Amino acid sequence: MHRHRIDDIDVLKIDAQGMDLDVLLAAERMISGKHVPFVFVEVGFQSNDIINSPFAPLNEHLTAHGFRLSGFYNQTGCGQRGAAPNLFFCDALYFHPDALLHRFPSPA
Question: Which end of the chain is more exposed for a tag (fewer CB within 10 A), N or C?
Fold first, then answer.
């Protein structure tokens, strides 16, 4: 964004195969200001998942920056045959109320 002189983006979509928190840390300036109203990130819920970033640290990082969880999408379950499926991974959508108002101001 800095190199191309882009001040704001509408959605930061991250699918970095387990490196999603690293992407967020590198985007610290973007997400700590009012530059990104939405973050869409893939999260995992199983301790043996080596592909997806764990939900808890991502959620903690984003909520510490004022983002709120809006919902889960593209949910994928796992489980043994005959057992109830568990949520394995999904996409999580977060929004930042202040960034949302900054990026999309209400008409006067």
Answer: C
Tell me the CATH number at 59. 3.30.110
CA 33 to chain centre: 16
> What string of DSSP letters covers 80-108?
-TTSPPEEEEEEEEEE-HHHHHHHSPPP-
H runs (alpha helix) in the chain: 20-26, 28-32, 55-64, 97-103
Instruction: Determine, yes or no, domain membership for 75.
Output: yes
What average pLDDT values come out for the chain (108 residues) when binned by 10 residues?
83 92 90 90 89 94 96 82 72 93 78
| pTM for this predicted structure | 0.86
35 within domain boundaries: yes
Distance CA 14, CA 26 (A): 12
The dihedrals phi and psi of 57, each to the nearest 5 degrees, come to -65, -35
